[in-house]
Q: What sequence folds into this?
């Protein structure tokens, strides 16, 4: 299996999904997997996976697709990858992504964009972002599953664009130790796979309580796969009216209606609900996420990691910082740092950052009220469009790209789990996804509902 994946990766260079291949490590892990007695084999024994470049893997380049981390090889292993390898998984290499996970098209990567294996005529399409390499690799069968991370939609949007399944677990379910930080109060790791069942198996291996991450939650990890019965009789599914955006395409609306019908046929009760603060989620996210990013990215100063600019005679430490950061960070990352420092600055803190935090509480309360009223899961579209052409947003206002996250950021703000499941094709023949949002730490139930939609 590992050899077949390595061969497929060699033949798929045009997708630019893998940015660093680790065939030696893969073959060593695969041999070790073969040697394990089947009776005692762990859950992912010999299963070849791709790892998003945001995860630190000991001794393997881990750059978050940024030039500023050029040559960085971590001395330590992220808890999630340690858990996966502990479960017998095989690492094929590191996967492409948007720089520091900032983006929705994989075009901010220092390695150039990954390409969606789905095509319309000869147009090259984005696999989505930021976990675009993960989505492209899974969709093109280069690996059996991949890790992703999701701060505002980076697992679910690329899953929707490539016809794959991706779940962002509840904040705290997977350890963030060793995952290069973007916005620490929003970041979560999760699996990207071909099927809901594969996601259940992979999430089970990834999740754990970890004393090295103070926000990781000390709760048992249930057997998610065993919970996939497909029985959702008596469950209540909420349809939030605020997600019916003006100008929502008829095709997406149709897919949404079909999703409702499928769940109703499976015995669920469909109810209309209201999440009144939804429209403030995107602007509040684009205050909070850059604020946290500007703080997290302060550590890349040319001293401790990766790239350092060449200096001229007379340059001091300030010039060293400035030149290194100007060369090492791409434009989108620089924009986020500037927005983040602005909203945190003394004169604007209350008007922006504090205001956004209050909005965040209101968004969380909307969901809590829906769940308290008996809703078990919420069904929405995953994205406002299918995969768009690479380069299409090059000259657009950056907010156009941010609008990709309109359905996904709400639950990062509330810390809730969300899954994107393939839900059919649009008129161009491109995949569309539906999103299900669940109660905190009820990923098993959520995956089971997604299973009924699959
Ligand atoms: N597109 C969003 C952003 O750029 C989400 C990214 C993510 O989830 N990592 O911030």
A:
């Amino acid at each position: 299996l590992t050899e077949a994946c390595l061969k497929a990766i060699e033949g798929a260079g045009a997708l630019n999904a893998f940015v660093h291949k680790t065939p030696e490590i893969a073959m060593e892990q695969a041999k070790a997997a073969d040697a394990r007695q089947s009776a005692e084999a762990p859950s992912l024994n010999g299963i070849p996976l791709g790892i998003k470049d945001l995860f630190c893997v000991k001794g393997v380049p881990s750059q978050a697709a940024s030039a500023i981390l050029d040559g960085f090889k971590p001395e330590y292993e992220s808890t999630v990858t340690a858990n996966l390898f502990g479960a017998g998984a095989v690492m094929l290499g590191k996967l492409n992504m948007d720089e520091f996970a900032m983006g929705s098209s994989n075009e901010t990567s220092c390695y150039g964009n990954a390409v969606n294996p789905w095509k319309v005529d000869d147009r090259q399409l984005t696999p989505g972002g930021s976990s675009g390499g993960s989505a492209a690799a899974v969709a093109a069968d280069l690996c059996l599953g991949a890790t992703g991370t999701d701060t505002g939609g980076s697992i679910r949007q690329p899953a929707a664009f490539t016809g794959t399944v991706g779940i962002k677990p509840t904040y705290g379910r997977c350890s963030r130790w060793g995952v290069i930080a973007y916005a620490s109060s929003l970041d979560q790791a999760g699996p990207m796979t071909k099927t809901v069942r594969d996601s259940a198996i992979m999430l089970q291996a990834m999740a754990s309580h970890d004393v090295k991450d103070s926000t990781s939650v000390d709760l048992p990890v249930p057997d998610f796969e065993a919970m996939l019965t497909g029985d959702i009789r008596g469950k209540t599914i909420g349809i939030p009216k605020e997600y019916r955006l003006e100008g929502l395409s008829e095709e997406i609306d149709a897919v949404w209606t079909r999703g409702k019908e499928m769940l109703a046929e499976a015995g669920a009760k469909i109810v209309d609900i209201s999440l009144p603060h939804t429209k403030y989620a995107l602007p509040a996210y684009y205050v909070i996420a850059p604020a946290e990013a500007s703080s997290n990215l302060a550590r890349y100063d040319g001293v401790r990691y990766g790239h350092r600019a060449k200096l001229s005679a007379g340059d001091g430490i300030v010039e060293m910082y400035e030149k290194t950061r100007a060369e090492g960070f791409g434009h989108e990352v620089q924009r986020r740092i500037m927005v983040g420092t602005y909203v945190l600055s003394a004169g604007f803190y209350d008007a922006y950052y504090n205001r956004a935090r209050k909005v965040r509480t209101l968004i969380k309360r909307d969901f809590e009220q829906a769940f308290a009223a008996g809703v078990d899961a919420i069904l929405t579209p995953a994205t406002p469009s299918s995969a768009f052409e690479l380069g299409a947003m090059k000259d657009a206002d950056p907010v156009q790209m941010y609008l990709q996250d309109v359905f996904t950021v709400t639950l990062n703000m509330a810390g809730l789990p969300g899954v994107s499941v393939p839900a059919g094709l649009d008129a161009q023949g491109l995949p569309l996804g539906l999103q299900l949002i669940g109660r905190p730490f009820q990923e098993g139930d959520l995956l089971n509902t997604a299973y009924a939609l699959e």
